[in-house]
Amino acid sequence: MNPLIIVTGGTKGIGRAIADRFVAEGFDAVVCARSVEGIQVSDGTAPGLLPVGADLSTREGVNSLLDYIKSLNRPVDVLVNNTGVFQPGQIHNEAEGTFEQLMNTNVASAYHITRGLVSDMISRRQGHIFMMCSTASITPYTNGGSYCISKFALLGMSRVLREELKPHGVKVTAILPGATLTASWEGTDLPEERFMKPDDVANSAWAAYSLSKSAVVEEILIRPQLGDI
């Protein structure tokens, strides 16, 4: 049986690049997003993608994903908490409800999905959890508002999980990417070479996963060569 990776927000951008990288290494990948139209489903004869449509900003959506994963009756080897949303603004003037939307999507989803899957990892003393943080987890900026708050919180959760899971053989890695050329940057006037590529992040995740059991990469900070945008 192929090892199994779960990637939330896994149908495009960094999430899709991570799913494709692990599939290329022999994994099956459950990819979850609000819309999974156009995703080719694995027929079970070769490693591939297993798409699940769910809105992870809600508990109903999280529970739907967890129910699907449990229906596979397979151990989860890797969990990538990548789902996220960005809304520009400042704390004093961003739209009402922005804080709740970003905290539910960017933080609460990772919290509840991890809680739903980590017990089995602990019992098997095996597993790797990646938390998709951001340079916004450590560098506040004036148009970040609730987004920065949510990413600071996600990094804090990653560090707490790392301490909790140390004695149980489960690894936790926080990834903090800078500006990466994904759909969120569509329409920018900046040249492509000013950005990182999603594959850069995916290859870093695979390298961290590939270490021996006695080593863990706790945090990966990746920025464009010319620095933050």
TrEMBL record:
CDD domains: SDR_c (cd05233). The keyword Ribosomal protein does not apply. It holds the Pfam family adh_short. GO terms for molecular function: oxidoreductase activity. It comes from the Bacteria. Signal peptide: none annotated. Keywords: Oxidoreductase. Belongs to the short-chain dehydrogenases/reductases (SDR) family. This is Short-chain dehydrogenase.
